Amino acid sequence: MASQAQRVLTTVVPTASDSLLPRATTTASGLRYTLRQPGTGARPQAGDRVVVHYTGFLAADGHIFDTSVQQGGPLKVKAGRGVVIKGFDEALLLLPEGSRARVWIPAALAYGAKGRLDPDDETEKRYLIPPNSDLIFELEVLKVK
């Protein structure tokens, strides 16, 4: 499975003008997603534990701001419980086990006007995610429990 997750990092870096965007499904909240590989397993319900590899990009320039691959393992999170940003939570509930998807998350479903400061910046002035940034995630749902 690690090789699949590493492929995420070798794809063309997505941006707001992504060629997959016109084929995306848009939800009522404004989240957009395109299945790159449909899953055949269970679809998560709120409260289910989901094991997912992810790579997060700034939509404006394709800069990678976070990835589970470099953290040494997939994220394990309870879906639909507000542990992660709203858009990520919503995406988890849409994707069955085995799915790979590209997800576009509008700023309102991400960090909004506050953005997210870089935790490694001792001055607390540098943003990891600037205010009002749309985000793009590559997700691979490995397991639903």
TrEMBL record:
SUPFAM superfamilies: FKBP-like
Reaction(s) catalysed by this chain's protein: [protein]-peptidylproline (omega=180) = [protein]-peptidylproline (omega=0)
All copies of domain PPIase FKBP-type, residue ranges: 47-145
EC number: 5.2.1.8
UniProt-recorded name of the protein: Peptidyl-prolyl cis-trans isomerase
Assigned protein family: Belongs to the FKBP-type PPIase family.
The keyword Transferase is assigned to this record: no
Organism: Hymenobacter perfusus
A GO term, aspect molecular function: peptidyl-prolyl cis-trans isomerase activity
